[in-house]
Design goal:
The protein is an alpha/beta fold. The chain has 11 helices and 12 strands. It has 2 domains: about 170 residues, NAD(P)-binding Rossmann-like Domain (Rossmann fold); about 140 residues, Dihydrodipicolinate Reductase, domain 2 (2-Layer Sandwich). Strand 1, helix 1 and strand 2 form a beta-alpha-beta unit. The longest helix is centred in the C-terminal third of the chain and has 20 residues.
């Protein structure tokens, strides 16, 4: 399957490296790349460092010239609106392309509409790396737990906050924790997005929209972070066997993100550094979950890769593709009564 990459930053370059490494096993030639600054087109497949010409006048023109079957959308996450990634995805669907993305924005802001558009157009829409970069979250239910209904979830989903709290527990300052997160490339731009809980709210919206059909945006989720937490308070809690984490909680239509005091023995407190954890409450499988241990950009790229392979599999296995079914019947999307929506 030919790929068009929108964005050629850390994740997209890791996807391109993986495509090169795996090309003897799976063929995903990259026939087009567009960034803010340029475009490269190669109908037989581009090298890892192609020559870029000027950017095209529109994403539509890029998609037409790339003549790909899948758009891999890897532009930066816009936490306010999810754009321009939402428009990129719509343009791809309109041309009959499947879409894979690691971008939270479209799923946090427009999931149900994009899902339904993909279904109407008979194309696939995948986003495994949008949360917990490659560790199974959505595919867990798609493939391992068919028919299982997600009733709620609890998660520790923001790495920067974990690093800040741990730095303060060691006697360092809030800013020293942030500096470590920046050094690791975890915190970029305005770090209050992480420490105020908005990154967790975006991930909570993504998970709830996909697995509980919540139809929320991050802005509708009550959020309280760790910005006012002092080193003294953290040390005092630590002396009493307690710690703090920004915890996402969803139960039915009730969603919230809040800094919580936890016993250090709590499984949620066992998540250290850049690792993340999510626990699902389900009807048929009780409590189950996924942990992402020290995620890397290569694992995020693997999540994108697994989505690509899943599209190939769904198109060749004889199993009805997602787009050919009524989305109401998809086992991994749990529909809830509209009256419960926030
Ligand atoms: N990094 C991770 O480990 C990770 C993990 C999970 C999810 N994600 C998500 O994956 C996506 C990509 O992340 P990244 O770390 O690879 O980002 P990045 O390194 O900042 O790269 C972003 C790329 O997008 C391009 N771009 C920006 N605006 C564009 C536009 N309007 N049209 C076309 N291209 C545009 C940039 O072009 P220029 O080079 O010309 O500026 C750049 O090539 C993000 O949505 C991120 O949230 C990342």
């Amino acid at each position: 399957m030919r790929l068009a990459l929108l964005g050629y930053g850390k994740v997209a370059r890791a996807v391109a490296r993986l495509a090169k490494r795996q090309r003897g096993l799976h063929s995903f030639p990259i026939t087009g790349i567009q960034t803010r600054h340029g475009m490269a087109i190669g109908v037989r497949g581009l090298p890892l460092d192609p020559a870029f010409g000027p950017p095209p006048p529109s994403v539509e023109e890029f998609l037409d010239r790339a003549a790909a079957q899948v758009l891999v959308e890897l532009t930066p996450h816009n936490p306010v609106t999810g754009e321009p990634a939402i428009s990129h995805i719509r343009a791809a669907f309109a041309r009959g392309l499947h879409v894979v993305t690691a971008n939270k924005g479209p799923i946090a802001h427009a999931y149900s509409d994009l899902r339904d558009t993909a279904a109407r157009r008979g194309v696939e829409f995948r986003f495994e790396s949008a949360v917990m970069g490659g560790a199974p979250v959505f595919n867990l239910f798609r493939h391992n737990f068919p028919g299982v209904k997600v009733l709620g979830f609890t998660g520790v989903l923001n790495s920067t906050s974990n690093l800040v709290i741990e730095a303060m527990e060691r006697g360092g300052s809030f800013d020293e924790g942030l500096a470590e997160a920046r050094r690791l490339g975890i915190a970029v731009g305005d770090a209050s997005y992480d420490t105020e809980g908005w990154d967790s709210a975006a991930k909570t919206a993504v998970i709830a929209n996909v697995l509980m059909d919540a139809r929320v945006t991050p802005q509708t989720i009550p959020t309280k972070g760790i910005t006012r937490l002092t080193q003294e308070r953290v040390r005092e809690l630590s002396a009493h066997g307690k710690t703090v984490r920004i915890v996402s909680r969803a139960r039915g239509s009730s969603l919230r993100v809040r800094a919580e005091v936890l016993d250090k023995t709590d499984i949620l407190a066992s998540v250290k550094g850049v690792s993340n954890l999510i626990l699902f409450d389900t009807d048929l499988m009780g409590r189950t979950g996924t942990i992402s241990i020290e995620p890397t950009v290569d694992r995020t790229a693997y999540g994108v890769w697994s989505d690509l392979m899943d599209i190939v599999r769904s198109r060749t296995s004889g199993v009805a593709p997602q787009g050919s079914r009524n989305p109401e019947q998809q086992c991994f999307i749990q529909k809830h009564d509209d009256s419960h929506r926030p």
